[in-house]
Amino acid sequence: MANDELIVWRAKHDDRDHAWRNAGGLLLASFFPTVLIGCAGALDIALLSLAIFTPLAAVFAVREIVKDRKAVVAIELRNNEFTLIRPDGARTVYPARQIDRIDVLRTMYSSEPDVIQLKLHVGDRVERTRNGPAELPEGWEEAITVAEVAVHTITKYKRD
């Protein structure tokens, strides 16, 4: 592998509205207990549950959206530089010497395809990617070795 060869890792979803779809489910789920209680005829309890569950779900939804705005959807590795690409197209370039280590979090499911998430530790910051394909691109390990970046692999097993 030449040092100037481009190696790209991409997440499964790189669209901007990915987090809105996930967070919207949280908000809709917050109305479910209210509807059930309202159908049972306890209107005062239904209003109380609406006042409790909706702001709580909104906090988690906003947290998910903010976290996802900072997520990385692609990593380009060329000439010992990591270029991180975000959903809005913003790019951040880090020389390999600034990256302390890369955590490869591999999640293995019994009924779904496996996924990985990468976490790049840059000083006191951690750059997190969205979930991506289970295998790293061809030449990735060799390029990381050339860049002299430590890689730590963590495997999690999820059963249905």
- For the secondary structure, the number of strands is 9
Distance between the termini: 40 Å
Instruction: Please give the count of helices.
Output: 3
Low-confidence stretches: none
Give the domain tally: 2
The helix content is 25-40%
What's the arrangement of secondary structure elements?
Blueprint: E1 7-10, H1 18-39, H2 43-69, E2 74-78, E3 81-85, E4 91-95, E5 99-109, E6 115-122, E7 125-128, E8 132-133, H3 140-147, E9 150-158
Helix pairs in contact: 1-2
Overview of this structure, please?
Helix 1 packs antiparallel against helix 2. The chain contains 3 helices and 9 strands. With 160 residues, it is an alpha+beta fold. It folds into 2 domains: 52 residues; 62 residues, no CATH class. The two termini are 40 Å apart.
Brief descriptors of the model:
160 residues, alpha+beta, 2 domains, five-stranded mixed beta sheet, four-stranded antiparallel beta sheet, 3 helices, 36% helix, 33% strand
